[in-house]
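Subject: Predicted fold for ABC transporter ATP-binding protein, 243 residues

User T.R. writes:
Posting the sequence so we have a shared reference for the thread.
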Amino acid sequence: MTDEGATTGDVLVTDGLTKSFGGITAVDGLDLSIGSGELVGLIGPNGAGKTTTLNLVTGFLLPSGGMIRFNGEDVTGERPNELSRRGVGRTFQISKPFGRLSVYENMLVPNVPYGPAEREERIRTLLAELSLDHVAENRADEISGGQKKLLELARVLMLDPDLVLLDEPAAGVNPALMDEIMEDIKRINAGGTAILVIEHDMSVIEELCERVVVMNAGRNIMTGTFEEVRADERVRDAYLGGT
Ligand SMILES: Nc1ncnc2c1ncn2[C@@H]1O[C@H](COP(=O)(O)OP(=O)(O)OP(=O)(O)O)[C@@H](O)[C@H]1O
Ligand SMILES: [Mg+2]
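User M.O. replies:
I've generated the structure tokens; pasting them so everyone works from the same file.
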């Protein structure tokens, strides 16, 4: 599943996606596609437009131009709650659970389309799978930074998304916990959920991603396997500060 462009197997397609903030064009005509069930890395230097792209695709920002298609439907301009109902899930670069609620109570926040018994069952399953069951009754602002990331992921999975976008899952996480998070990401993906992971830690990208998209100055400058991307001159230039 390394095709480019809008095939029927794509869960997400952006076409000429653009976002300007005053004089800055943070995302500049971005064409991106993610196949159903694919695990894709999104890399690029600081300020390349990765988080802005994620905010556009999840409805947290409105595009200045271009189009977003999710599961074949035009969703451009839809709001985060509409998109999450459609099956778009996300985590934030800085995790922000509801701090005064317990871990368990945080899991009750998503507006799930199924009944309380199934909700209870899912919460128990997800907390166990993400090794949060032993802190279920702790306040969310008292668990570790890595556990907050896991909680955010668990909460997103309550909605059984078709696509999850992860913004820097490795940032501030110790290596042992990162190994666990990577196993979780792989398991979630193996269950059929497509994942787009933004990450500066190249070992994480290498370990996880079958395909890597490189952004620089708001554009998609290359797509390929990790090896192809690592060997590419344009990518090296981008990281060395050229554009
Ligand atoms: N709300 C905003 N208002 C004005 N400018 C913004 C806003 N959000 C992002 N930008 C600018 O858009 C550009 C892209 O930012 P973005 O956060 O998308 O980069 P990034 O690739 O996620 O970087 P990093 O790897 O450092 O997280 C930057 O120049 C940034 O300063
Ligand atoms: Mg960012």
